[in-house]
Queue: 3 jobs
Job 1
Amino acid sequence: FWEQFEAFQFASVDLARFRDLDEVAERALELALDLTKSSVAFLAMVDDSGDRKQVYTRAAAPSDVLTEDQIDGLVQKAKPAPGAAMVGRAGGSQHGDSAQSTFFSQTLQAGGRTLGVIGVVSNAGFSAMQRRSFSLFANQLAAAIEIARLHERRQEMVDALVNLRAELDRSEAQRLLSEERARSTERLERANELAVEALLAVSVHARLGKNLTDFYRRLTGTVAQLVGAEKVLFWQVNDNKTLTAIAGAHGIDDAFIARLKPGRC
């Protein structure tokens, strides 16, 4: 008895190594076949509503593989007494707690919720010690499945948060891009207005015949707004290939301009 019991305990510890639900299920079926010397083992998982979610099965030989209908029949057989061991023949009729029973299953429960059913089939039947040890193993399996599910949900939550963060970053980048486009549009519209003002300044001067200094003062002021400059100065190209500063600069007084000497061009 103790040798069999320790084998089941070791199997329970072995399950704790896995965090992936599929890995837990596959390893549990391997252990169930080995520990009970069964020909077939299956694990039927259910969702929170109790509907069947996924079925895992493993057979010692290809000829022992169960069909989905047979597994459904065994799962239905295990339902009448949730949380308690059910025994019966794989063919369908249910039997008592006999060592000769060829089918044995255990409902998996954790945290007050039913997670599924694990069952084994053996033509040699199961002893009382095997059934007790298998029930303990099923309890440990339920805990391992619940841990794997929690791990998956945690990973899903992490992935969702990562995706949300990425989406927020994309939204922020799009917002900044939209704001920059709006500012560019405003600058373009203002530049167009200032360009029109510059043309108006030229046309007004030509029409009214105002002096050049006043004209350049208005023009340099308009250009300063257009390009965002604090100082704007025009230079005149002379016939002798020199440059002379033109009076009427924006942000520069006439006295400073008068001190500027012509430069070679």
Job 2
Amino acid sequence: TVTLAGPTSVLNSLPSFVKTLPVTITNAANDLTMRVPLTVPNSVVVVETNFVTVNVEILPILSSRSFTGSVEFQGLRSGYQATVSPQMVEVVLEGPETQLDELNPEDLRVYVNLSGYGLGTYRVDPLVLAPPNVRVVNIIPESVEVRIELIPPPTPVSIPLATATPQP
């Protein structure tokens, strides 16, 4: 609250707020707190203080980007093998624009958790491990088909044995 004094005609014509001098935030990377002078007409005076404290919160510009990632397996039982269809999914991320600009597809990990799954074919929702401050908005498709089978036993291979020939 600011108390102003001056001619009644001037005070009645003022809006319900008092402006400050412009606050410069050029190149600011962190939140700012500063004392800023008030601006009032020449015939008006501020009664107690001519400054206010201004808090400026600096937030990153948010953006979204789409990445393609190959689906990996986690938690697959020993002795089992899995195939997934499709093998690639599209991941839509949202986060600070500067961070998304520096992000590579290798920085994402797309996987299906197969813990507790046995032999068979299943629809499983992929999960994405994204960097901090980045949010997964969408995964396309939302689920993938996973087929779990036993690893086939190795096929025996015949190796001819060399025969020794006696030397005279």
Job 3
Amino acid sequence: AAARRLYDEFLLQQPAPCIIFRGKGNISAEEREAYPEGLVVLWQDKAWVDRPLAMEWAEDVIKPFIEAERKAGVAGATDRYLLFDSQKQPRYINFLKEWAVDGHKLPPNETDQVQPIDRGLGRQVKIYLGQAMDQWLDDDDNLTKWEDNDLTASDRRILLANWYHGA
């Protein structure tokens, strides 16, 4: 019973979903509160994973996931994890090693061949996100806001974050 309680209390079934928005993250408290619970929102000027953002992702997504697995008793301190990525910065690699993550580096200029963005899981997420968007647009008021460009950048980020998290 105690083991089951630990499992239920701490285990994160998957690493937290994460979305990267363009900008610096200088947003209102209202917008932050409108993001779904459990979604990690990161910010980068061009919305891509550079060195600082890779570290932030590792600290905000991978570390809590491994901590949760250990607290739940489904992973021990010597259990290892495998991560496929292309980051080569020593600070990032050393941080992951501290958390028992072995990195498998992708070949240069080949990430598009192995990233699941347009195939597999990534495609399914896009399909479900599109369905959520279509359902939202079925409301005439929402469609008018969309067509008249009455949505602020904050409105669009909140919608996208919620659709993505639901997907």
